[in-house]
């Protein structure tokens, strides 16, 4: 069922999403801007934890991210209210990104995920190795 946002407004849409049952296409988790699998979001939050940074500083720290992906990630994070972008009227132009209070609140979640990773990395790697071994054996048996 399509929802006419013009009739109910954005807040009405958000409330409708928040009231949806779990696993419903309008489940509240689909509105959550931070997805654990988006590695750049968490890394950008960590990069900005100590204070504002320029785009080039972020690129130097996050060496494997392309300029395009970093730009897309920063725009999405700004849209979600996780970071703010401040443009300084200078020559050459200078733009800084900083965490908002909302973005800073993600640090607890990221810290919990990092603790879980440290505590469970050996088990995770062992499970992957078992799975890959089983897959190789299964593939070899089909030949």
List keywords for this structure.
mainly alpha; elongated; 59% helix
Description of the molecule:
The protein has 143 residues and is mainly alpha-helical. 59% of the residues lie in helices and 10% in strands. It contains six helices and three strands, in the order H-H-E-H-H-E-E-H-H. It has helices spanning 5-18, 39-48, 55-61, 67-79, 101-104, 106-142; strands at 53-54, 83-88, 94-99. Strands 1-3-2 form a three-stranded antiparallel sheet. A hairpin with a 5-residue loop joins strand 2 (83-88) and strand 3. It is elongated, with a radius of gyration of 21 Å.
| Secondary structure category | mainly alpha
Task: Note the overall shape.
Answer: elongated
Q: Give start-end ranges of low-pLDDT stretches.
A: none
In round numbers, the mean pLDDT is 81
Percent of residues in helical segments? 55-70%
Tally of contiguous helical segments? 6
The main sheet orders its strands as 1-3-2
The largest β sheet comes out as: 3 strands, antiparallel
- Structural Rg: 21 Å
How many runs of DSSP E, i.e. beta strands? 3
Strand proportion, as a percent range, falls in: 5-15%
How far apart, in Å, are the first and last alpha carbons?
48 Å
User: Secondary-structure element sequence?
Assistant: HHEHHEEHH
């Amino acid at each position: 069922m399509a929802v006419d946002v013009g009739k109910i407004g954005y807040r009405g849409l958000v409330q409708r999403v928040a009231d949806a049952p779990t696993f419903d296409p309008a489940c509240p988790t689909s509105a959550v801007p931070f997805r654990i699998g988006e590695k750049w979001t968490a890394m950008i939050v960590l990069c900005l934890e100590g204070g504002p940074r320029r785009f080039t500083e972020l690129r130097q720290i996050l060496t494997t991210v392309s300029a395009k992906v970093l730009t897309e990630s920063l725009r999405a994070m700004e849209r979600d209210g996780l970071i703010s972008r401040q443009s300084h009227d200078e020559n050459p132009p200078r733009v800084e990104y900083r965490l908002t209070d909302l973005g800073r609140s993600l640090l607890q979640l990221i810290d919990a995920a990092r603790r879980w990773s440290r505590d469970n990395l050996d088990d995770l790697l062992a499970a992957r190795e078992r799975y890959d071994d089983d897959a190789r054996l299964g593939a070899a048996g089909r030949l």
